[in-house]
Please model this.
Amino acid sequence: VQLVESGGGLVQAGGSLRLSCAATGSIGSIDGMGWYRQAPGKQREWQRELVANITSGGSTRYADSVKGRFTISGDNAKNTVYLQMNSLKPEDTAVYYCTAPGPVAPYWGQGTQVTVSS
Model:
C-alpha cells in the first residue's frame, strides 16, 4: 500500500489549501483514513497530532483546534481522501501526513509541508 499526498504549500494566514491523499494497493476502502500533522520542533513520530479522520460511511472526527475550519472528505471509489483547510493560522504550520489502517501498523504517506505565514 502506498499513500501519495499532494496539495501542500505556502499560504498567508486566513488563506486556504486542499490536501489530497490517494491510496494504491490493497487498501479496500477509505475507512479509517485520515490526516496527522507534525509541527516544527517535534521530531518524533509519536508527537504527530491527529487532525481528522473519516470512515467509509462518512463519519468524521476532528481535533478541537481545527473544528469549523477544516473538512475531511473521501471518495471510496478512488480510495482518496481530502482535507480542505480554511482560515489557516500560523500555528497550522506543520508537515501533514496521510494515514490508513494496516493489518499490523498504520500506513503513512511521505508527508506534505504546509506553511502559514502571518
The chain is about 0% helix and 50% strand. The mean pLDDT is 94. The radius of gyration is 13 Å. The first strand starts at residue 2 and ends at 6.
